[in-house]
Amino acid sequence: MGNLFCCIQVDQSTVAIKEKFGKYEQVLEPGCHCLPWFLGSQLAGHLTLRLQQLDVRCETKTKDNVFVNVVASIQYRALADKASDAFYKLSNTRNQIQAYVFDELPLPELVIRASVPKLNLDDVFEQKNEIARAVEDELEKAMSAYGYEIVQTLIVDIEPDEHVKRAMNEINAVDQSTVAIKEKFGKYEQVLEPGCHCLPWFLGSQLAGHLTLRLQQLDVRCETKTKDNVFVNVVASIQYRALADKASDAFYKLSNTRNQIQAYVFDELPLPELVIRASVPKLNLDDVFEQKNEIARAVEDELEKAMSAYGYEIVQTLIVDIEPDEHVKRAMNEINAAARMRMAANEKAEAEKILQIKRAEGEAESKYLSGLGIARQRQAIVDGLRDSVLGFSVNVPGTTAKDVMDMVLVTQYFDTMKEIGASSKSSAVFIPHGPGAVRDVASQIRDGLLQASATQ
Any idea which UniProt keywords this protein has (predicted)? Predict the structure, then answer.
């Protein structure tokens, strides 16, 4: 249908080659293009610009006369600006790249078959990245003329001859903190310490496996009930390791060490009757929290007895968590909160008591000092009145002390009334409040003084 309307579609990451009367004309980018067939235009083909990968294998010989198969993974893609070269110059890109790397063309003298024979087998493994970079550089030079870019080259495998591999397996290295189990015709023979060991396979020797001597940890959880009927989850952390002098027992007697320890602590074997599920039900919840170290020691002692027969040492056991039921935890938190509120109320009441005592002591001291001030004030007033009466009597002949006192009282009365009248919010009221009341006040004061004198 597209040819009928002289239109073609070029997909993304692809280019198309346009010819006119069989001769290259142009590269068509992704999109819709018109090719009028009646004018001789035609589509020669498509060329993908996506990244492609080619895995190729080459057999060669190392410096120490070991035949190896080297597998290289080459990632490449066509260049959009050289699409015509990539389309017309190579009939089969993958075969061409493979020929350049390994087989027919003179380029191999610069890469795989030139590099590997200069190295021993161990050096080939160590320098595979340098070999890959050499392949990539030389391929880039060769393939750029054909419109292709070499994106990356990796040496993904170096596989020696089968007999060489078997011979290499005869020499085994055992890492530090690890032992290996050696068998002969399937029967245990010895424990191999860290280092290099020879296992001649033709004599029936083989490696059964490795056993780590590093410290390992297992966290296990057990649900049980306390004496006061509270269900709790007890989490124990057990640190253990295999014994080097009992490595054969640790390797052959247990198929799954972690499951065996968990069974001994909590689940299936009779040992739990001696540890978690025998200890916790004898204690109240508070005592379980207080005595968790004793429970941990009991677990450790019993596990040590059981696991020593299997070549394992229990280094340490810790009770890392005791988790009651959610409702119990909520109730415990409420009890604790109530106790703290009660303590806070007591402290607050004690503080208020101290505050009131200090306030009363302050008021008492204030009143005492105020009384001293008032007494001194009155003494000063009396002294001033006495001097005023004496001075007035001397300066005004014929006046008595009574006349002077009456005049002073009247003066003070008017001064007081003036002060009361000057304040709009004063609530002081004198009853009686007439000027004649001064005589009565003076008479009362004088009578009081005379009576006091008579009494003395």
Answer: Coiled coil, Lipoprotein, Myristate
Residue for token digits 């070269």? 85
Q: What is the pLDDT of residue 269?
A: 44
Identical fold for domains 52-165 and 216-324, yes or no, is yes
Cα 309 to Cα 301: distance, rounded to the nearest angstrom: 14
**What phi and psi, each to the nearest 5 degrees, are found at residue 134?**
-65, -45
Does the N-terminal peptide bond of residue 432 adopt cis geometry, omega within 30 degrees of 0? yes
Question: Measured over all CA atoms, what is the biggest interatomic distance in the chain, rounded to whole angstroms?
Answer: 160
On the question of pLDDT at 28 being above 60, the answer is: yes
Measure the N-to-C terminal CA separation of the chain; round to a whole number of Å: 146
Instruction: Indicate the SS3 state at residue 73.
Output: strand
Kindly report, residue by residue over 366-386, the tens digit of the pLDDT. Answer: 888 888 888 887 788 777 767
Q: What pLDDT digit, counting tens, does each position of 131-181 carry? A: 888 888 888 888 888 888 888 888 888 888 776 666 655 555 667 778 888
DSSP string, 162-208: HHHHHHHHTEEEE-TTEEEEEEETTEEEEEEPSEEEE--GGGTEEEE
CATH T-level assignment (fold) for domain 216-324: Tetrahydropterin Synthase; Chain A (3.30.479)
pTM, 2 dp = 0.40
Q: What is the CATH number of domain 52-165?
A: 3.30.479.30
Separation CA 215–CA 38 (nearest Å): 83
